[in-house]
Task: inverse folding
């Protein structure tokens, strides 16, 4: 059990950092410059949510790539 926790805990932190950084970049830098259709409307499934997810996924990929290089 302890071994599984030690393997999963870094993945949790990587995912959390990716989501927080991705959302910060999307909402603070990208959303004001995007067209209206690409902006996220709260509590709705829309293209803004897809763009936000893609940004978070890019951050997650960069974090994983940097982790594997170490």
Result:
């Amino acid at each position: 059990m302890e071994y599984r926790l030690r393997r999963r805990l870094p993945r949790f932190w990587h995912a959390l950092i990716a989501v927080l950084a991705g959302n910060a970049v999307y909402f603070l830098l990208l959303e004001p410059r995007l067209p209206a259709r690409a902006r996220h409307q709260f509590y709705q499934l829309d293209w803004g949510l897809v763009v936000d997810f893609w940004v978070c996924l890019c951050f997650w990929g960069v974090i994983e790539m940097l982790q594997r290089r170490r």
User: Anything to note?
Assistant: The CA atoms of residues 52 and 66 lie 21 Å apart. Residues 2-69 form one domain. The chain has one domain: 2-69. Helices lie at 2-30, 47-69.
